[in-house]
Amino acid sequence: MKKFIMIALALVAGASSFAQQLKTSSDSVSYTAGMTITNGLVPFLLQQKVDTTLMADFVRGFMDAVKVTSDPKQKAYMVGMNIAQQVNERMFPGIRKDFEQTPDSINADLFYRGFADALLGDTTRFTVAAAETYFTTKQQADKAAREERLYGATRDAGRKFLEENAKRDDVVSLPSGLQYKVLVKGQGEVPQSSDKVKVHYEGRLLDGTVFDSSYKRGEPAEFTPMQVIKGWTEALTLMPVGSKWQLYIPYELGYGERGAGENIKPYSMLIFDVELLEIVKE
């Protein structure tokens, strides 16, 4: 509290002496313009995790930066500080995360040293082109190894199921890899990809886990075939209204290598019961 009071008194004293310089209307307009644009700045600083009890330090940094904009060396230095913050807060965490659960890990000191050497033209260890090739190759290899370890069994189980399922007489296999079984044969119109449709559905994983169901919600869903996963898009544009199909969707036509939410792992093959109720006329 004592420190805060001292800072406040210093700021008040500074403001009192500075007020004497506001001699003309232009002076006051200039000063109030500067005050006005701070509206909303404190919440922004809080979002940036700036300790607002250190406002005097923030102001000192701001005023120093304003003064050096005409000095090329100082301007370069300040821009370097700016870029460092962006790299440190936005880029570095993502790159480090890419290598979690892999044989390699990211050393912060070496990461920043590599950044600096590239800009300073130091090619003692790598040229920039060679560094890009090495990094990209390792990143892809480590990602593939991690995904194989984590999700290889999920992918292989889906492929094995589809391979066996394709042998059944009541299952239709399409060139895309999509498979379906007709539960109820509809006689209505077949939707175009841009039509809005109304459907009831239930989605399950290979182990029978239900991850989504309009039946449980008690209300059918409405959307266009273009708004959903590829397996659905293809099936809906083949189904006559009134049909009910069971879809067997390979991961490539589902949520792919990324998965979706907590339940659908990457490389998951999906099973859907889909009932096409109507084409919604608008």
In short:
With 282 residues, the protein is an alpha+beta fold. Helices cover 49% and strands 15% of the residues. It has two domains: 2-84, no CATH class; 162-280, Chitinase A, domain 3 (Roll).
Architecture overview:
The chain is of the alpha+beta class and 282 residues long. It has 2 domains: 2-84, no CATH class; 162-280, Chitinase A, domain 3 (Roll), CATH 3.10.50. The protein contains 9 helices and 7 strands. It is elongated, with a radius of gyration of 31 Å.
Write out key terms for the chains shown.
Chitinase A, domain 3; 15% strand; disordered N terminus; 282 residues; elongated; alpha+beta; 7 strands; 2 domains
Percent helix range: 40-55%
Please write the CATH class name of the largest domain: Alpha Beta
Order of helices and strands: HHHHHHHEEEEHEHEE
Mean model confidence by pLDDT: 88
- Structural domain tally: 2
Write the layout of secondary structure elements.
Layout (H helix, E strand, L loop, with lengths): L1 H18 L5 H12 L4 H7 L7 H13 L4 H27 L9 H13 L7 H38 L6 E2 L5 E6 L11 E9 L5 E4 H4 L3 E3 L6 H7 L7 E6 L20 E11 L2
Antiparallel strand pairs: 1-2, 2-6, 3-4, 3-5, 3-7, 6-7
